[in-house]
Structure prediction request, 549 residues.
Amino acid sequence: MIAERSAPALAGLMMDRSLQISRLIDHAATWHGDVEIVTQRTGDPDRRSNYRELRARSAQLAHALHERLHVAPGDRVATFAWNTQRHLELYYGVSGMGAVLHTINPRLFAPQIVYIVNHARDRFVFLDADLVPVLEPLADQLPGVEGYVILCGEAEMPVTTLRNAVAYESLIAGLPDDIAWPELDERTASSLCYTSGTTGNPKGVLYSHRSTLLHAFAQAASWQAGSGSQAVVLPVVPLFHANAWGLPYMAPMQGSKLVFADPHLDPAALYDAFEREQVTLTCGVPTIWLRLLEYLDRNELRFSSLKLLGVGGTAPPRSMIEAFEVKYGVTVLNAWGMTETSPACTFGTPKPEHDVLPQRIDYKTHAGRCLFGVEMRIMGDDGVPQPFDGTSQGEIHVRGPWIASGYFDDEDATARGITDDGWLRTGDIATIDPDGYVTIRDRAKDVIKSGGEWISSIELENIAVAHPDVAEAAAIGVPHPTWSERPVLFVVAKQGRTVDAAAVLAFLEGKVAKWWVPDDVHVVAELPHTATGKVSKRTLREHYAAATG
Ligand code: ADP
Prediction:
């Protein structure tokens, strides 16, 4: 049972100013007005702007939504777009006027896009011009969408069959660049993001103004002086994925310069962006950083400004952390979370006694320690919370003011995802050691169960990618008559190298328990990925089942 909250015996005498997103942009425009926002696109000159202009244009957009599109508070307005200033204007304009910003991942499969636009009942979709060909063939299946706004000027407006298509610049043109944002109840919904749904339909996570601001405060505090008005932040993580891990809120809160790089993320372009804009802080998934490392190594390059690199989404390999920390002098912070948790629940700052080489690297392979504001337990199979002893494992449950209490319009998913006593079931299997370091052993659905014991696919993969010829690895459990499942490993060779399956097996031996050593290693040209850039184990299992009959 969830305990009822009682009315205060004596209410505090402090102002009840709501925590709302518009206050962030008002603050940034007033106190950090000339701090830059840079948008880079290959082939175009960089677009340079600042927080003052961001607020002015967000205000124009809010007026346009209200007066020209008749969007009402609570309506969903979708974005289908890459990381750009215009996308950021939508973050502030839509949420600021009390409507809900629904960010959609353009890399999702067509049926998922159709499902989530219809499920969310989006009234308008704002999309980048290069994504028009992706939505055009789907538009007939999106009857609720009243119009499409292309994120460009009139001159760049593509010819399109999308109904009621207008250019963004024309939509906002001529409207006042100032606004008195409405006063909102801080529990008002602000944005909506669907989890990619590796199983079943995607599920909608509906953030509130309050959850967003509290998460931004917690995040700002976590970087330990590495964020702030002297920071230059480049979110490699997309604005369509879990609010770009909160960076679009944290940066204006602290007056950090923001840089949006080209979405195609070629490592050379990314390195160039870091250097040209003197980026100090960045965040993204390990795949991006592994590619960047390869590029740096090959070209013997160094960073002149980068200090902090946030990583999450999947467990980063030890070898990657070591290379950034030791060879390139960049502090790596491994954070764990998910769309449902805004997303940060942990942060990877080691305790002072562990923050020395070489053990620092080992501590950073853990998924960090719990942030204030999040409560965490690990629940054993038997329904009993497990001790934090580093060996007892179970599913992580979390609760707190920036953790989802349910899924948007989806009672079944809510019933599955939230426990009777009010915790979010994360589906991640973990251990927590006596110092509080969380180690993600697996996702519940990826764990390999062999002879009644668990084998961590993540651990096998991380050891495999430490092999000098291996670029990427994925382990899955395949059915076995005696052991119920046995691990099989798939590896991809680094560019210009060849990998030998036997060598990978030999490399694993001695580094894991004997019975963890995979029955088979397959060298493949590439691994299947999900729309969020993670290896799709489901596809891999299907391919394997089809190939082996
Ligand atoms: P999905 O991948 O389902 O679309 P998310 O992007 O929300 O959803 O991913 C959340 C999941 O990513 C977590 O449940 C966890 O399995 C994994 N994850 C996130 N951060 C880390 C990390 N630092 N280490 C290991 N796994 C992580």
Summary: Residues 443 and 504 are 24 Å apart (CA to CA).
